[in-house]
Amino acid sequence: MAVVFLGSFVCGVLPQGTRKGNRVKTRRRNPHVGVGIGVQNLNAWYGANHTLQDINLNIPANHATALIGPSGCGKSTFVRCLNRMHETNPIARVTGTVRMGDLDIYAGAKPVEVRRRVGMVFQRPNPFPTMSIYDNVAAGLKLNGYSNKKRLDEIVEKSLKNSALWDEVKDELRKKSGASLSGGQQQRLCIARALAVDPEVLLMDEPASALDPVSTSKIEDLIFQLKSQYTIVIVTHNMQQAARVAENTGFFLNGRMVEFDSTHKIFTNPSDKRTEDYITGRFG
Questions:
Q1: Does the pTM exceed 0.70?
Q2: Structure confidence by residue, pLDDT tens digits, 52-81
Q3: Is residue 248 part of a domain?
Q4: Are 140 and 196 a contacting pair, CB within 8 Å?
């Protein structure tokens, strides 16, 4: 089955559902339960470059987990391994175990099965410029044959409310394009688009790095709200942001996980001198 990339999500079949002809039957997850992620001996390469080396950690369900570290340390590669986007590069490969709830994503699971459970939001907002706000949110569902207008309306409204954008755009859903919104609104639109396909995990790769302080604050407030329903993993260069939004933090350096612990401990009493040096600005 072909995999179709659409901005902030990747889908090959309708998330949480199955298709019969033009009819789609959805299988709903518990809306208040994310899933834990267990990573064991994860290694990743781009060609001969060993970008991730023996990563081991457990990411708890319904929490926000931050990943910090200098540029090029492997944070973004790691999150792409969590939804098997890493392997879309023809020179990339992965070994190790990643369990997402009851699913071992590298042991017989199809990539589309993994990606329908994992939403992803990238560093820069990427709405579809020729689509309306409504169609941006509904794009993944429509692509896979979902045509029940009443249900689509409900999902679009719910997703925009969950991304704290509904009140700002509800009167112009079909009038304005996604690209006409401000940068902060576009990023929340991309979050709504990811939520519309009902994932269990939401990956965020520096989602606020290109935004102004007001928009950044809205994204951080949104993370607090969403983690009651989803497991969130956020990559950030902003250590203050990690301290504000995440219960747990992992520090990457040179492709290795140096330390993973509660955010409070990482920032007040790290176990590794390299972590202390990074968070106090001695390098990075």
A1: yes
A2: 999 999 999 999 999 999 999 999 999 999
A3: yes
A4: yes
Whether residue 61 lies inside any domain: the answer is yes
Torsion of CA 170, 175, 176, 177, to 10 degrees: 120
Q: What is the pLDDT of residues 11-53, one digit of tens each?
A: 333 334 434 434 434 445 555 567 999 999 999 999 999 999 9
CB 212 within 8 A of CB 125: no
**Residue 209 lies inside a defined structural domain of this protein:** no
The domain tally of the chain equals 1
Q: What is the CATH number of the domain that holds 278?
A: 3.40.50.300
Quote the domain boundaries for residue 257.
35-117+239-284
Q: Do β-strands 49-59 and 64-68 pair in parallel, antiparallel, or remain unpaired?
A: unpaired
Q: How far apart are CA 90 and CA 101, in angstroms?
A: 28
The tokens describing 15, both together, are: 């998330």
- Residues forming a β-bridge with 58: 38
